[in-house]
Every structure is written in C-alpha cells, then in structure tokens.
Design goal:
The protein contains eight helices and no strands. With about 220 residues, the chain is mostly helical. The chain has one domain. Keywords: Membrane, Transmembrane, Transmembrane helix.
C-alpha cells in the first residue's frame, strides 16, 4: 500500500510538472533576455550575449522541471511511505484532524493535505486516460467506435473512482496525519505555525494549482 500511495502521488506530480514545462521555458527565456540585455551594455561582457542557445535553454528548463518534480515528490510522497494498514483506526479520525486544522491552523495542516488531494486527482486522471486510450485502441476495430468509446469511458471512470477511493483518500489522510504530527511538535505559536515547513509548502503550491487547472480533466471522461 505505501508504494501504491507513493506511485499515485508521483504520477500526479509528474502530470502537474508536464503542465508547467512551457511556463518554465518562458521564464528561462525571459531571464536569458534580461541577462543578454545587461551584458550587452558593456564591451567586456558583450561576448556573453546569446551564450544560451534555444537548445540550451530548453535543456535548462527540463533540468529545472525535473529538480522541481523530485523535490515535490520528497515533500508530498515521503509521508506516504510510513503508511500502515489500520492507520485510520489507530489514529485521530478525519473529524478530529479537520477540527484541529480549524482551531489550530498551520501552513502544514492546510497546504500539504490540499496539495496532496489535488495531485492525487491528477495522478488518477493520468492513469484513467491511459486506461481509456488503451481500451479504445484495442477494441475499436472489433466492437466499433461507439461501443469501444462507451466501454473505454466506463472503464476509465471505474479506474478513476477506484484509485481515488483506495489510494487517493489514504494519501490525503496520511499527509494530514503527518502534517498534524509535525505541527503539534514544531509549530506552536503564530510564527512557527506560519513558517514551519513553509518552504516545502511553497514549492508544491504551483504544482498543486497546475494539477487542478491543467492536469485533472475530470469532465473529459463523461463528455
């Protein structure tokens, strides 16, 4: 089960990172343009203009995306490795944990579980799209386009629901438990409640937004 949670989170993070590839390349292009403008002012540094070709900028953007993806995996997926069957019965219930989030809010308690939820939805959508495409291509010639389309959509929705039910909810619960444990130990007081773990949380916020906006086409399975 821990490896399943890890895999689902990793797939979701990868899908979110893919959605941000073009934006990262645009940022690299913008930084390179400003660098060229700066070094082009002086004869001594003028040879540095265009030192980064399009190919190098693309490679740099891919390296940055990979580093971002791996860092987000560490932040969101590592707690899942400590998941054990029966955790729901031996630890605080959802209601108690959520009540604690409201009464003693910290950046960890709010950002990490929400980011995990958005990422696992993106991961489940990626797997469901793979199921849909595989089934449609395999059965299209045999059953016809309409039947294969309906069958592939049905199996994709089944895969999506099963992944979110069996793995997604557990991944969110485990991250909520981990955030609660860390918050109780290290995040007492307003400053610590806000600042503890904020760097990692800030790292995953853009990926979580990309997962929700660009990598979770839930309506595509029913249209």
């Amino acid at each position: 089960m821990p490896l399943g949670l890890l895999a689902l989170i990793a797939v979701g993070v990868h899908a979110a990172t893919d959605a941000l590839d073009d934006r990262l390349l645009s940022l690299v292009d913008l930084a390179d343009a400003r660098f060229d403008r700066f070094v082009g002012r002086y004869p001594l540094t003028a040879p540095l203009v265009d030192v980064l070709s399009l190919e190098r900028r693309t490679t740099l953007a891919r390296i940055l995306a990979l580093a971002w993806e791996l860092a987000a995996d560490l932040v969101l997926a590592l707690p899942a490795l400590s998941y054990r069957e029966g955790d729901e019965a031996s630890t605080d219930s959802w209601r108690v944990l959520l009540r604690r989030c409201v009464r003693a809010p910290t950046s960890l308690r709010w950002i990490r579980p929400v980011a995990t939820a958005l990422v696992v939805v993106a991961g489940a959508c990626s797997v469901a799209r793979l199921v849909q495409g595989t089934v449609f291509l395999s059965w299209n010639e045999l059953l016809g386009e309409r039947v294969a389309d309906g069958l592939s959509r049905g199996l994709a929705l089944a895969a999506l629901g099963c992944l979110l039910w069996r793995l997604g909810a557990r991944a969110v619960m485990r991250n909520l438990q981990h955030a609660d444990e860390v918050s109780q130990e290290h995040a007492r007081g307003f400053v610590r409640a806000l600042g503890h773990g904020l760097a990692g949380s800030t790292l995953v916020i853009p990926l979580a937004l990309a997962a929700a906006l660009d990598a979770s086409p839930l309506l595509s399975f029913v249209r």
